[in-house]
Amino acid sequence: MKPSLKLTINSDVAKSAVYLVAISVVMLMVLFTRSDSFARDTNLIVSQLSEYTKIPNVVTSVILGTRLFDTIGEVTVFTVAGLGVKILLGHEQTEAEQFGIKDQSIRILLNFAALLSFILAIDLALKGHLTPGGGFASGVAGATAVTILMLTGELQRIERLYFQANAAAMEKFAVVCFVIVAFTTFASFLIPDSIAASISPRVYIPLLNVVAAFKVTIGSWSILRLYILKRGVI
Q: Who's near 93: CB < 8 A, 6+ residues apart?
């Protein structure tokens, strides 16, 4: 006689099921209740947004102007993802010996590529509101430069820099600065007569770009260094 199968439902499974049902209900409501008859004048929206922000890069105007609340969520998700990597890899043993690229000619080329990537990161951060680019793109370029240096055998030097600069604390500081500036801009919409309302988008949008670039660079650096330290150079 075959033993009967028993389904064990713990609290985590129950929570996951509730979340899945809730998300499914919301998505179905959006799918079947949204009206497709609402017409939009896209050109008018873009022109008004450009006129309001005075920022040539309309993509940046959307991300850091009208959809800043979503961007705060993205910064938060990225921070939580970094914390998750630290929790998952924190218990693993560090590789006893780290191997980098030994070929001198390849190392020179990669170091040059790292320099170009670092310059690109600065340009994207400072000019992201004028040309295609922005804080997240700049952060990816900055993290790429640091990763290339770690792969070329500069891991020990990069590690010393990481702890001397207290990069982990600087990343948290960047998150706090981003949230403060973001909520200051929200206050300018909610309270038109406040001091925050007098701050031009041409001031706070480039500032948010720079802060986001700083945060993404250090956050990506923290994640990638853990992978290399715990798993080695793959």
A: 230
Q: Which of 68, 40, 71, 66 is nearest to 52 (CA)?
A: 66
The total number of structural domains in the chain stands at: 1
Report the length, in residues, of the chain: 234
pLDDT tens-place string over residues 121-141: 999 988 888 887 788 889 999
Contact 152, 227 (CB under 8 A): no
pTM above 0.90, yes or no: no
Nearest Cα neighbor of 222 from 120, 101, 76, 79 is 79
Range of the domain at 123: 56-231
Residue 2 located in a structural domain: no
Give 11-43 pLDDT, tens digit per residue: 667 777 787 888 788 778 767 766 555 566 777
User: Do the beta carbons of residue 187 and residue 194 sit within 8 Å?
Assistant: yes
